[in-house]
């Protein structure tokens, strides 16, 4: 049975103009015009029987027209009431054996003088149920309920949400973390889910358990206590860095000897990897490895080589003389020694003999990329980067992303298992190119490649940020799904508006007026561009929102400043 049974008396007005996906409706009754609201839904008669067209009201206007001017009777006026509707899809009464099927396609356009109806009341509820049932097909991802009708659940297509990359954004306090947590808890309940959350501030730690594994990049305290990967403590050893990343970390590009230093590092690292493979008799790898191959090597042997070259003497006419690079590597050696001794970088250099084991990468990959049946803990992994220094943060986040991409790329097609990378605070490590330094450039290249090619290898990106205007534009342009919470900054609103289809550009005007916990959802995963109220997650992230006014009226721990300074000096929180 068709859900729409409108009569001519129910019509708001009739179509007076049609332009591709935009329709102008003339509304004769002023009282009916008052019922219309921008961003509400409207139904139009289609030129095809058994079909209705669904649109969003994007503009409502009333114009006073001067019909005649007379000296004795003054001016005669008439009113022209217009409603602008952006068409977004078609509702079919029947398609095969299915009844009331919504499609995000326009198989026809309305004819001139076709009736237009407001979608409200029971008709709206029935239509939203159709939308919900269409998406509730076993691939559903439930975010909350539609603001238009809170009786209808808002389903997204989980396949399309992750297949085609997604963006989640919103100003501080808009509910972005709740929306992310709501998605995480549903992903975690799937039998063989596989996702990594880059948690820069440790706010998602409360989600651990019930299919979610909490991991942490080793901080100074973790190094001292001897924690290992079996404890969920992750060391990202220096030998996993690409050559480009090593140069970025070790070489000061402003140094006049930087090209020579980069060349010598390349030579010494290559030789150290060769020795490791030769000593371990890994002959099959020895024949094919490159400087970027993930092969362990002893950094102390590289340091010995650098010192030897820096102090090298060669035979001269009048006796020994300084070698070609004598004294030219001093700054490089000093910089490298400082990095190695920096307690904050213990996750790179202080992993001990364990991280030099040939199978360490296998164990790391099992933790990061293994689903529940493989690692026995959970398919969703939260990686806490909160103790990673900000100056190397882009390198470290991109290192995990590069390992994920490379392993997916080298997995045979028939054995690939999809994985999603959820990039919280993405503007910090995949910023616009005009805001970047050398470390950021490396990170951007990796994430851009994932955004462009990841789908082929079963790798998805979910970009999460409170500042979309500062996130790399190339990566955002590859996102086909948008969950946008309240955005108050005009630059951020402009970014989202440019990424939406032209017919929905005005829909983004509601971004600054969204309530806390409300989201504008648009994209391939959503049958209908919608305003949704996000459901409260079962486990809430620690978003760090402090009640200032209440706290200022309470008690204060008088020892807090001294303990903070002590923790700062020790580089660990006690």
UniProtKB/TrEMBL annotation:
Q: Does the keyword Ribonucleoprotein apply?
A: no
Instruction: Please provide the record's keywords in A-Z order.
Output: ATP-binding, Nucleotide-binding
Q: Name one Pfam family in it.
A: DUF87
Chain ranges of the Helicase HerA central domain: 142-401
Q: Give the molecular function GO annotations.
A: ATP binding
Q: What is this protein called?
A: ATP-binding protein
Species name: Microbulbifer echini
* Lineage of the species this protein comes from: Bacteria, Pseudomonadati, Pseudomonadota, Gammaproteobacteria, Cellvibrionales
């Amino acid at each position: 049975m068709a859900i729409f049974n409108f009569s001519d008396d129910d019509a708001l007005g009739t179509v007076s103009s049609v332009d591709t996906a935009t329709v102008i409706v003339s509304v004769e009754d002023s009282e009916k015009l008052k019922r219309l609201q921008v961003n509400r839904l409207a139904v139009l008669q289609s030129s095809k029987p058994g079909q209705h067209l669904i649109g969003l009201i994007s503009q409502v206007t009333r114009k006073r027209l001067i019909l005649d001017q007379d000296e004795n009777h003054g001016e005669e006026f008439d009113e022209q009431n217009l409603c602008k509707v952006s068409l977004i899809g078609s509702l079919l009464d029947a398609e095969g054996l299915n009844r009331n099927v919504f499609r995000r396609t326009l198989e026809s356009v309305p004819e001139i003088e076709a009736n237009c109806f407001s979608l409200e009341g029971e008709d709206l509820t029935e239509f939203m149920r159709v939308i919900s049932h269409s998406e509730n097909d076993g691939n559903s991802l439930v975010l909350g309920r539609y603001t238009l009708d809170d009786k209808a659940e808002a389903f997204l297509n989980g396949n399309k949400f992750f297949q085609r990359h997604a963006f989640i954004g919103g100003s501080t306090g808009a509910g972005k973390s709740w929306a992310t947590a709501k998605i995480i808890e549903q992903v975690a309940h799937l039998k063989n889910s596989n996702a990594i959350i880059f948690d820069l501030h440790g706010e998602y730690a409360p989600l651990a358990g019930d299919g979610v594994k909490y991991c942490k990049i080793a901080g100074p305290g973790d190094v001292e206590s001897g924690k290992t990967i079996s404890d969920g403590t992750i060391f990202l050893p220096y030998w996993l860095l690409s050559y480009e990343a090593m140069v970025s970390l070790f070489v000061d590009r402003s140094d006049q000897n930087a090209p020579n230093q980069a060349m010598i590092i390349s030579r010494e690292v290559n030789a150290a990897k060769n020795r490791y493979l030769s000593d371990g008799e890994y002959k099959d790898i020895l024949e094919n490895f490159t400087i970027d191959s993930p092969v362990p090597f002893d950094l102390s042997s590289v340091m010995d080589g650098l010192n030897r070259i820096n102090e090298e003497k060669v035979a001269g006419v009048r006796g020994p003389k300084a070698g070609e690079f004598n004294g030219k590597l001093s700054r490089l050696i000093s910089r490298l020694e400082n990095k190695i001794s920096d307690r904050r970088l213990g996750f790179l250099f202080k992993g001990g003999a364990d991280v030099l084991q040939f199978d360490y990468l296998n164990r790391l990959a099992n933790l990061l990329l293994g689903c529940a049946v493989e690692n026995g803990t959970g398919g969703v992994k939260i990686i806490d980067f909160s103790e990673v220094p900000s100056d190397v943060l882009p390198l470290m986040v991109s290192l995990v992303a590069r390992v994920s991409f490379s392993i997916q790329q080298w997995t045979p097609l028939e054995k690939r298992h999809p994985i999603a990378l959820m990039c919280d605070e993405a503007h910090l490590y995949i910023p616009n190119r005009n805001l970047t330094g050398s470390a950021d450039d490396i990170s951007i290249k990796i994430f851009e490649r994932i955004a462009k090619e990841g789908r082929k290898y079963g790798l998805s990106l979910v970009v999460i940020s409170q500042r979309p205007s500062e996130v790399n534009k190339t990566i955002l342009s590859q996102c086909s799904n948008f969950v946008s919470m309240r955005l108050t900054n005009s630059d951020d609103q402009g970014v989202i508006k440019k990424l939406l289809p032209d017919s929905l550009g005005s829909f983004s005007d509601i971004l600054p007026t969204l309530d806390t916990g409300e989201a504008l959802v648009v994209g391939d995963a959503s049958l209908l561009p919608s305003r949704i109220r996000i459901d409260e997650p079962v486990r809430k992230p620690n978003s760090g929102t402090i009640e200032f006014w209440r706290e200022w009226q309470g008690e204060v721990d008088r020892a807090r400043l001294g303990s903070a300074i002590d923790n700062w000096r020790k580089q660990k929180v006690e």
